[in-house]
Design a protein that fits this description.
Elements (H helix, E strand, L loop, with lengths): L23 E10 L6 E2 L2 E2 L1 E5 L7 E7 L1 H18 L19 H6 L1 E2 L5 E2 L3 E3 L2 E6 L4 E7 L8 E2 L2 E2 L3 E7 L4 E9 L3 H13 L13 E11 L6 H14 L11 H16 L6 E5 L4 H11 L2 H23 L11 H6 L6
Antiparallel strand pairs: 1-14, 1-15, 2-3, 4-5, 5-9, 6-7, 8-14, 10-13, 11-12, 15-16
Length: 342
């Protein structure tokens, strides 16, 4: 079933291949914080000491958004849709407990269940870094847990339920490239839709962590393109040269998107791989067509059903059969029966 008219079908496989076939699609994304999210490990915000830019050699600390902090919320968005429309083996599939091994989530994002089998992820996400330095991108808040009357004391006793926590500020930007290996058209739309729909990232996602994904392009290639860090450093150079970085003021989103697009165009032109770019104005028709599919309930269900069918066929052919071990042959009996053994 064909869904897209703005992209040549040559960029997609008809079925999910068992081996890497050298087709990549890259979703060029800017993740924008819209509240006070937490990307942390062991109680502290994740950060990295890196070079500020490609030309600017000054080392700075940047906030880091680890890969699992990005991929997990997006795959959970897809799983939620599959359950909502009762597509595939949605009743059995329980994230990090009991994978069905047949859904688009299991096959595209991968799974590992000890001795019961595993599937390597076809969606590749790497650590993303904030454009602005760590010191200008976070704030420490004091947190408390009041009693029913709204105060911190009751019957003369003062509670000790008070703590402090670093939070990432709103309007901090994390350039991130999401890669999908050997896509089918339905698989491409499935991952695209998950990125567009996901709204919360990081810890305590029920109360904070609002993040919006702004896609500025899609690049098809026969290999992987630039890293998140290099792209972030290029954006930093361009914005600094134009005087668009003025701490402690937040970055202007229009400036970020404009320079992020230009930075990607500049970097991709230096690549040694074959690539077809839908970036900037050439991306708008594709984005509009994808949104017309994902916002239409009937077409969305058709896409999800197609993605599930492809994943199920792949699983039955390459995953489930591979997990079944044939019983060992009795070499003594084989020899008696005149059967050659190795």
């Amino acid at each position: 079933m064909k869904f897209l008219n703005t992209i040549d079908s040559k960029f997609f496989h008809d079925t999910i291949p068992a081996k890497p076939m050298g087709k990549y699609v890259h979703f060029i994304t800017i993740r924008v914080t819209e509240s006070y999210p937490l990307f942390q490990t062991d109680g502290e915000l994740n950060k990295a000491r890196v070079r500020a830019g490609i030309e600017n050699k000054e080392p700075i600390s940047r906030l880091a958004m680890f890969k699992r902090k990005q991929s997990t919320p997006e795959r959970l968005t897809g799983r939620e849709l599959l359950r909502n429309y009762k597509i595939g083996d949605w009743e059995k599939c329980d994230y990090n407990v009991d994978f069905s091994k047949t859904t688009p989530d299991c096959i595209l994002y991968g799974f590992a269940i000890g001795d019961s089998g595993s599937e390597k992820s076809k969606v590749v996400v790497d650590t993303a870094y904030s454009i602005t330095p760590f010191d200008d991108s976070h704030l420490n808040f004091t947190l408390n847990a009041p009693f029913e009357n709204g105060t911190m004391s009751r019957q003369g006793e003062v509670t000790s339920r008070i703590n402090s926590q670093d939070h990432i500020l709103p309007q901090v930007f994390f350039p991130s490239i999401v890669r999908l290996k050997d896509p089918t058209e339905a698989g491409f739309l499935y991952v695209f839709n998950n990125i567009l729909r996901t709204r919360h990232y990081g810890a305590q996602t029920t109360r904070t962590g609002r993040v919006r994904n702004e896609l500025i392009g899609v690049i098809f290639a026969d290999g992987e393109i630039v890293s998140n860090l290099l792209w972030t450093q290029k954006i930093y150079d361009l914005m600094q040269q134009k005087g668009k970085i003025n701490p402690p003021d937040p970055l202007n989103e229009d400036d970020v998107l404009e320079n992020a697009t230009q930075a990607m165009i500049d970097l991709i032109s230096q690549e040694c791989i074959s690539h077809t770019d839908f970036v900037g104005t050439s991306f708008t028709p594709l984005l509009n067509e994808v949104k017309s599919i994902t916002s239409n309930e009937n077409r969305l269900q058709e896409m999800l059903s197609q993605a599930n069918t492809e994943s199920s066929v792949y699983a039955q052919t390459w995953v489930l059969k591979a997990g079944k071990k044939e019983p060992k042959k009795d070499s003594k009996n084989n020899k008696k029966a005149g059967v050659a053994t190795e």
